[in-house]
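Team,

Forwarding the record for the chain on the shared tracking sheet. I've put the sequence and predicted structure together so nobody has to dig through attachments.
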Amino acid sequence: MPQVTVYTTTVCPYCVRAKMLLQKKGASYEEVNLDKEPGRRDEMLSKSGGKRTVPQIFIGDKHVGGCDDLYELELDGELDGLLAD
């Protein structure tokens, strides 16, 4: 299973929804809470092409995007394949 990284903030309902879906899929992930690690915001911006909103989700080297993008992959039947690579 590829490494999954989720950039979050403490009070973010979309972050909670994204993490819930990943947990439902049995995917382990690294959570980078930008409230607790503000120095990593530049890392997120660089990896995401300047996207500032959270969550920003990465599966392996692929930038998935945010919560809605993650759920769209699930609805399209593509999420399992990404998590299995």
